[in-house]
Amino acid sequence: MTPALAFFYGGLVHRKNILNQLFLSFICMGIVTSQWCLFGFSFAFGPGNSAFGSFKFGALRFPGDQSHLYGERDDPNNSPTFPLLTYVAYQAAFAVITPALISGAIVGRMKIVSYLIFISVWTTVCYDPLARWVFSYQGWLHKYGTLDFAGGTVIHISSGVAGLVSSLILGKRHDYDPNKHDTAHNLPFTLLGTCLLWIGWSGFNGGSASAANGLAALALINTNVAAASALVTWVVIDAILGTITISGACSAAVVGLVVITPAAGFVQPGWALLLGVIGSIIIYFVLKIKKRFLHFDDTLDTFSCHGV
């Protein structure tokens, strides 16, 4: 999903920023995976309190249990039917793509070294605690009964808000013009990225059932239905108001995938379809309002499409 995001974002930016934008997603696969192995997973899912983990699972070593050498250690809460290292790898994918999402808000105005430091710190002090609070059975939000099936809070709200704050701190691009429509330089890139994201999201949401069962099937169907209804709704609104755009249609599919993520295992398909419609309508007009009245430079609408 992270390379897919790179293509999705990469096709929407100006030609001069394409390689930079691809790299901002790609480097997350290196930095965050390394951090996750060294201490990220331990902070999020290791022994500790309801707010934060510890270093006890650092470097993915589980004290007192040698079965981890073969990837066979299990966890009755997080990985009841498969090796714990499988769960580590699955959660690593969530951890990697979340800071990559933020890059869409800061296109063309953040130095690479600054970005590398930022995502390293942000993953440690923002993502890891949020993952613990919501995903870990030890987390305080989890204990209070918070329902977030596959990361609406942990991934999308966190990256959306971080994107907004980052864009406000960095300020506008020197050539930013709210009245000018940025021309996407390579829409086939964006369309390819959207399709791969849609496919990958099936594992993203379906895998959150932590089993190959009816719950996973429900999440899988809901994911596809919400994306489809959001896409169709956006295209219909576009057709009514003017011109159907490929970039808008691609954004719509992602909006549908985002809106169903926290609810994928908790609603029936008919409601998933309705959620896609509602999400698409809201974000369509949020973007209209942003363009007309809210002139902050969230380049690829990370906050609008993920945070809102």
TrEMBL record:
<dbReference type="Pfam" id="PF00909">
    <property type="entry name" value="Ammonium_transp"/>
</dbReference>
<dbReference type="InterPro" id="IPR018047">
    <property type="entry name" value="Ammonium_transpt_CS"/>
</dbReference>
<feature type="transmembrane region" description="Helical">
    <location>
        <begin position="183"/>
        <end position="204"/>
    </location>
</feature>
<feature type="domain" description="Ammonium transporter AmtB-like">
    <location>
        <begin position="1"/>
        <end position="308"/>
    </location>
</feature>
<dbReference type="GO" id="GO:0005886">
    <property type="term" value="C:plasma membrane"/>
</dbReference>
<keyword id="KW-0472">Membrane</keyword>
<dbReference type="GO" id="GO:0008519">
    <property type="term" value="F:ammonium channel activity"/>
</dbReference>
<feature type="transmembrane region" description="Helical">
    <location>
        <begin position="112"/>
        <end position="130"/>
    </location>
</feature>
<dbReference type="InterPro" id="IPR001905">
    <property type="entry name" value="Ammonium_transpt"/>
</dbReference>
<keyword id="KW-0813">Transport</keyword>
<keyword id="KW-0812">Transmembrane</keyword>
<comment type="similarity">
    <text>Belongs to the ammonia transporter channel (TC 1.A.11.2) family.</text>
</comment>
<feature type="transmembrane region" description="Helical">
    <location>
        <begin position="150"/>
        <end position="171"/>
    </location>
</feature>
<keyword id="KW-1133">Transmembrane helix</keyword>
<feature type="transmembrane region" description="Helical">
    <location>
        <begin position="216"/>
        <end position="237"/>
    </location>
</feature>
<feature type="transmembrane region" description="Helical">
    <location>
        <begin position="84"/>
        <end position="105"/>
    </location>
</feature>
<dbReference type="InterPro" id="IPR024041">
    <property type="entry name" value="NH4_transpt_AmtB-like_dom"/>
</dbReference>
<dbReference type="InterPro" id="IPR029020">
    <property type="entry name" value="Ammonium/urea_transptr"/>
</dbReference>
<feature type="transmembrane region" description="Helical">
    <location>
        <begin position="22"/>
        <end position="45"/>
    </location>
</feature>
<keyword id="KW-0924">Ammonia transport</keyword>
<feature type="transmembrane region" description="Helical">
    <location>
        <begin position="270"/>
        <end position="287"/>
    </location>
</feature>
<dbReference type="InterPro" id="IPR002229">
    <property type="entry name" value="RhesusRHD"/>
</dbReference>
<feature type="transmembrane region" description="Helical">
    <location>
        <begin position="244"/>
        <end position="264"/>
    </location>
</feature>
<protein>
    <recommendedName>
        <fullName>Ammonium transporter AmtB-like domain-containing protein</fullName>
    </recommendedName>
</protein>
